[in-house]
Amino acid sequence: MKFKSKLAISIVAAIAASTSAFADDHSQNGPKWDLIEVGYVEADIDDFDSSPSGFSGAFSKSLGKGFYLTGRYRDVSEDVVAFGQSVELDVSQLSLGAGYSLHVTDTTDVYGQITYENLELGASGAGGSDSEDENGFGAEIGVRSMLTEKFELGAKIGYLDVADESETTFGASAYYYVTDSLAIGATYEMWEDVDFMGLNLRYAF
C-alpha cells in the first residue's frame, strides 16, 4: 500500500513583532484557546476507492502572553477487498507542538505554530500485515474569528514534512457555542491526495 500524502512545514514569520495596535493577551470577546475536543473524522483518499473513518481528539492550552501548547490525534480505518482478500487499512496521525497567537481585533486572532508529526500507515489481512511509521515536523498559520458571540470561523494553511516528503495543506472550521463552554463544530482539511472531514464536540475552559 502506498500513501503519497506525508506531512510538512512552513513557519510563521509575519507575527514576530507586535505594534501598539495589537495587544499581547487574548481578548475576552475573541476565540478561546483553552479547550479540548473529541470527534468523528472521515478521510477521502484520491485515486483509491476508500473512505476510512474513525475518531479524533485535540487540545489547546494557553501559557500567557499569546503562547500556547497544542496537540491532535486522529485515527481512521476501513475494511476493503484487494485482490480477492479482505484487508483493513489504518491511518493515524499525531501532532504535538506550540504556537503564538495575536488578536488583531476584539474578535479575531491570527496565529502560527510548529509541531512534531508522526504518521503511521498500515494494512493487515489474509494472515499478514505491513506498516509504515514516519516522523517529521509541520507548521501552519491561520486565523480564528468570532463572527458573533456564539459562532466562530477559522481558516489555515500549513506545510508538512515527513520522511523527506512535503506538501502544502489547507483547512477551515466552523463552531457554534451552545453554551459559553460547549460548542459543536465541523472541520475540513485538504492534503495533496486526501481530504479529512470532521464533526467535533468542544469544551472550552
From TrEMBL:
Residues 1-23 form the signal peptide. The keyword tRNA processing does not apply. SUPFAM superfamilies: OMPA-like. Coiled coil: none annotated. Keywords: Signal. The keyword Ribonucleoprotein does not apply. Residues 11-176 form the Outer membrane protein beta-barrel domain. Pfam families: OMP_b-brl. This is Outer membrane beta-barrel protein.
